[in-house]
Amino acid sequence: MRILLLNGNTDSAMTERMHQLGQQALARMGLAHVTLVPATARFGARYIASRTAAAIAGHAVLDLVAEHRDTVDAIAIACFGDPALDAARELAQRPVAGMADASLSIALATHARVALLTGGTAWVPMLQEFAASRGWPAERVLVRAVTPTGDMIAREPERALSLLAEAAGAAIAEGAEAVVLGGAGLAGLAPRL
């Protein structure tokens, strides 16, 4: 099975990091028959941190879906906020999963209240709207952000760990039963919190 690991950001180092983490996860799960095919957006923002960048990323995602859809069995949009998720599903005509949609679906299947924690305060209203568009009420999904953007966190994770831990603790104090770290730049940080 071949899965397109599609990064809607233009940072190829981030794509490679997610690819490495994905390969490690597949190995732990004994899924040697699954191959991740990494792809990085050819245009748009290095790291999505605004509505404009997210809209452009949607176009970049669809560009890569059109290019790869006939060579893969499924597609994973490895870009939190899932730019163009529904359009990608329509275009691909094969399974397409979005990082935000999948992680929140799993968390909400087992927990009454979940905190979605990301980097960059501009993401808070965008992710609140995303959750609402998926039918998840605000009382079930607490969207929180630390000030450094995901890009900043990816470049200097040590500086952000205490901020993320503090924000996660505050969300738990507000009633969150689980915390989802959202954003490609936060990939691999969960075990360290």
Q: What's the CATH architecture of the largest domain?
A: 3-Layer(aba) Sandwich
| Gyration radius, in Å | 16 Å
Number of helices: 7
> Averaging pLDDT over every residue, what do you get?
96
Strand content: 15-25%
Q: What's a quick, concise take on this entry?
A:
With 193 residues, the protein is an alpha/beta fold. The chain contains seven helices and seven strands; from the N terminus they run βαβαβαβαβαβααβ. Strands 2-1-3-4 form a four-stranded parallel beta sheet, sandwiched between helices. Strands 6-5-7 form a three-stranded parallel beta sheet, sandwiched between helices.
Describe what this molecule looks like in 3D.
The chain is an alpha/beta fold and 193 residues long. Helices cover 46% and strands 19% of the residues. It has helices at residues 12-28, 51-68, 85-92, 99-110, 123-133, 150-155, 157-173; strands spanning 2-7, 35-40, 74-77, 96-98, 114-119, 141-146, 178-182. The strands form 2 sheets. The protein has a 4-stranded parallel sheet, sandwiched between helices. The chain has a 3-stranded parallel sheet with strand order 6-5-7, with helices on both faces. The longest helix has 18 residues, at 51-68. The model has no long low-confidence stretch (mean pLDDT 96).
What features would you highlight for this structure?
Rossmann fold; 193 residues; 4-stranded parallel beta sheet; Hydantoin_racemase-like; Iso_Racemase_Enz_sf
Task: Record the SSE blueprint.
Layout: E1 2-7, H1 12-28, E2 35-40, H2 51-68, E3 74-77, H3 85-92, E4 96-98, H4 99-110, E5 114-119, H5 123-133, E6 141-146, H6 150-155, H7 157-173, E7 178-182
Parallel strand pairs: 1-2, 1-3, 3-4, 5-6, 5-7
Helix pairs in contact: 2-3
